[in-house]
Predict the structure.
Amino acid sequence: MKRLLAALTVTAMLGGASLAADLPTKVVLTLAAAARVAAAAEAEAVRRGKPVVVAVVDDGGNLLLLHRLDDTQVASVEVGIGKARTAAIFRRPSRDFEEQVKNGRVAALGLPGATPLQGGLPLLVDGRCVGAIGVSGDSPQVDEDIAKAGAAAL
């Protein structure tokens, strides 16, 4: 009986090792890294004198951090989150979808979870998306420029 139990234990251990080898490792966006991204974007917004919302999400589009600078319009909260979520779940800048709509592909408006407005950028580590930043509150280009400052901090 002891031999059977020992054999089963070894088999389970080897099976577990095999399973672990089949599972990839994944880099995740930590709260500390998200805070650095948001702080850099906020610093750029303050430098420019632009009241904006800065949203940082994980790779699934879930909100990690939100900074709403003083005197920023309330509507920018959901828009900033939407831009970040779009960049995370589609793994590309939210601007791509705005350009598709401008170029006549109105079907892009129907994509689930897409906010087709410039200002959301994926956060990449070794070419893999670990999250995204979205900025809202000013012009499309200013929003994206502030988001770029945040993304550069990663």
